Amino acid sequence: MKHTEINRAGDMAEHYAVTWLWDKGYEVFKNCGCTGAIDLIAVSETGKVRLIDVKSYSVPEGSEERTRKPSGVRNKEQKKLGVELLHYNMNTRKLRFVEHKK
C-alpha cells in the first residue's frame, strides 16, 4: 500500500469513527493536525470525555490473516493521558473499542 493510500485509509477510518460515535450520542472533536497521541475527543451526553486514537486494518477475502494489524498497544504518552484505541476494520467498516489492561 502506498503512503498516500495509507493516509487515505486512516482518514476514512476517522470519518467512520466520527459518525459511529455520533450514532452513540457523543459530540466529537477532531485533532486538526496530522500527528499526535489523540485523533478524536468524544463527549457523552452526561459529560464523560473519551480520548481516542483510531487504528485501521484489513483482512484479505477468504483469509483470517490481517494484512495490516491494528496496534493494540498504546504508547507511554497515550497511557498517561488515558487514550482509548478504537479499531476500524476496512473490510466490514465496523468499529470496536480495545479493552486495555489496567
Q: Which features characterize this protein?
A:
about 100 residues; alpha+beta; Trna Endonuclease, Chain: A, domain 1; five-stranded mixed sheet; 5 strands; about 25% helix; about 25% strand
Proportion of residues in β-strands: 25-35%
**Order of adjacent strands in the largest pleated sheet:** 1-2-3-4-5
Task: Give the overall shape, derived from the CA principal axes.
Answer: globular
User: Largest sheet, if any?
Assistant: 5 strands, mixed
- Would you identify the CATH architecture? 3-Layer(aba) Sandwich
Provide the gyration radius in Å.
14 Å
Oligomer: single chain
Strand/helix succession: HEEEHEE
Q: Given the structure, what is the number of helices?
A: 2
Structure overview:
The protein has 102 residues and is α+β, with helices and mostly antiparallel strands. The chain has a single domain, classed as Trna Endonuclease, Chain: A, domain 1. Helix content is 26%, strand content 26%. A five-stranded mixed beta sheet has the order 1-2-3-4-5. A hairpin with a 4-residue loop joins strand 4 and strand 5. It is globular and about 40 Å long. The model has no long low-confidence stretch (mean pLDDT 86).
Set out the fold topology:
Elements: H1 3-23, E1 27-30, E2 40-43, E3 49-57, H2 76-81, E4 84-89, E5 94-97
Parallel strand pairs: 3-4
Antiparallel strand pairs: 1-2, 2-3, 4-5
Summary?
By secondary structure, this protein is an alpha+beta fold. 26% of the residues lie in helices and 26% in strands.
